[in-house]
Write a sequence for this structure.
C-alpha cells in the first residue's frame, strides 16, 4: 500500500445510487460537489451514472466544467457563483451546463452570455423556502419569474427547473419541512400563473430522498448518501465508499513515563509500543481528535495517543505485534470492525460529511 491512501469503493457508489433510484419514480441527480465529497470528482460521477443517475450536480461551476472536460455528457447543474465569474458562466453555457439563478443580477449575467453564444441558457430558478441561504426570497419571486419569462420570450433562457433546499430534512417530521413545501408549492403556482412551467421541480436532498417520498417531485438530489453515509438514523442499505488508511512509518518500544507528542498530554503508564502514522491535520485529520480519534491496527481498536500533529499521529498499541508498513485504518465501512466516518464524527463533535470532505490532496485516492 502507499504511504497514505483513501481507498474508494466505486461499486459501493454505484450500488448506493441504484438503491435510491429503485425507491423513487423521479430522476436522480447525484451531487458530486467538493470533489465528490472527497472521493474524487470524475470517478464518483462515473460510478453514480452507472448506478442510474441521470443528472449530476456541483456547487461551483469549475467542477461542472471538469466533468465536461472528462467526457461527461449528461445534464449537469451548478448553483454557486459570483458576479466576477461571468467569463466562467459563458464557458459553462457553451459546455451545456445548467445554471441556478436566484436573483436578477444572475439572470442578467446569464442573458448576456446567452446572447453572445447565440442560444438560450438552461436555468433553474431557485426559491428560498426557509433555509435563508441561496435562493430568491419569496417577496422577490414574482419579479424574478417575470424577468425569466421575458428572457425566455427573447430566446435568452429556458427555464428547465424550479428548485429549493431543505433546512431540516434530516429530522423527519420537523415542522419546517411542511412549511418549506408550502412555500415551494406556492412558488410553483406563482410561476405557472406568470407563464413559467418548469420541466423539473426538485427539493429533495439525501435525507428527503431516503425518508420523504412525497417530496421527490420530478428529480431528487442525493449527496452524502451517494457515498454510503446516511444523514438520518436507520438502515437504508447504503455502503460507505471510503476507507482512510496509512502505512505505519515507525514502530518502537518505549518505557513507562514517556511523554507522547506536543505538550505531553499523553504519558505512557507502562512499557509499551508506539506506532507512528504519517497522517495529520494537513491531511484532514481533525486536530481536536487528539486523544479521542479511533483507529484500527491489526484487528484491534485504539485511540490516538497525544496531540494530532501536522503530518503525524501516534498510537499506543500496548503489546500488540506491529511492524513498519502495517496498515493503520482510521475509518472504513465498519464491516471488519474498523471505525467508521460516523465514529470519527461522534468522537470530535461534527458530522461525517466533514470527515470525508476534509481529506487533503496529499492522500492518494485509490479506486477499487
Amino acid at each position: 500500500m502507499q504511504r497514505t491512501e483513501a481507498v474508494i469503493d466505486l461499486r459501493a457508489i454505484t450500488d448506493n445510487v441504484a438503491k435510491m433510484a429503485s425507491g423513487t419514480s423521479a430522476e436522480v441527480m447525484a451531487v458530486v460537489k467538493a470533489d465528490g465529497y472527497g472521493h474524487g470528482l470524475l470517478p464518483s460521477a462515473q460510478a453514480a451514472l452507472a448506478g442510474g443517475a441521470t443528472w449530476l450536480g456541483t456547487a461551483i461551476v469549475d467542477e461542472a466544467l471538469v466533468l465536461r472536460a472528462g467526457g461527461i455528457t449528461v445534464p449537469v447543474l451548478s448553483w454557486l457563483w459570483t458576479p466576477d465569474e461571468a467569463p466562467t458562466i459563458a464557458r459553462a453555457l457553451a459546455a451545456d451546463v445548467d445554471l441556478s439563478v436566484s436573483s436578477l443580477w444572475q439572470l442578467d449575467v446569464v442573458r448576456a452570455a446567452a446572447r453572445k453564444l447565440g442560444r438560450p441558457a438552461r436555468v433553474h430558478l431557485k426559491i428560498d423556502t426557509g433555509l435563508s441561504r441561496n435562493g430568491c426570497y419569496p417577496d422577490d419571486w414574482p419579479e424574478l419569474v417575470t424577468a425569466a419569462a421575458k428572457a425566455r420570450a427573447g430566446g435568452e433562457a429556458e427555464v428547465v427547473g424550479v428548485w429549493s433546499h431543505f433546512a431540516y430534512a434530516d429530522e423527519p417530521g420537523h415542522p419546517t419541512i411542511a412549511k418549506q413545501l408550502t412555500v415551494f408549492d406556492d412558488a410553483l403556482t406563482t410561476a405557472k400563473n406568470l407563464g413559467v412551467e418548469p420541466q423539473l421541480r426538485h427539493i429533495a436532498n439525501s435525507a428527503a430522498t431516503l425518508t420523504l417520498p412525497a417530496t421527490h417531485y420530478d428529480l431528487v438530489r442525493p449527496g452524502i448518501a451517494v457515498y454510503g453515509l446516511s444523514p438520518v438514523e436507520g438502515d437504508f442499505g447504503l455502503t460507505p465508499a471510503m476507507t482512510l488508511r496509512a502505512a505505519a512509518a515507525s514502530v518502537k518500544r518505549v518505557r513507562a513515563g514517556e511523554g507522547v507528542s506536543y505538550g505531553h498530554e499523553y504519558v505512557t503508564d507502562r512499557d509499551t509500543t508506539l506506532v507512528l502514522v504519517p497522517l495529520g491535520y494537513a491531511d484532514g485529520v481533525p486536530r481536536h481528535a487528539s486523544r479521542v480519534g479511533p483507529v484500527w491496527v491489526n484487528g484491534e481498536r485504539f485511540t490516538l495517543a497525544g496531540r494530532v500533529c501536522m503530518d503525524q499521529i501516534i498510537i499506543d498499541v500496548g503489546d500488540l505485534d506491529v511492524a513498519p508498513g502495517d496498515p493503520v485504518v482510521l475509518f472504513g465501512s465498519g464491516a471488519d470492525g474498523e471505525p467508521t466516518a460516523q465514529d470519527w464524527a461522534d468522537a470530535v463533535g461534527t458530522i461525517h460529511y466533514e470527515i470525508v470532505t476534509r481529506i487533503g490532496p496529499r492522500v492518494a485516492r485509490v479506486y477499487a
Notes: The radius of gyration is 24 Å. The mean pLDDT is 98. Residues 38 and 357 are 4 Å apart (CA to CA). The chain has two domains: 10-227, 242-367.
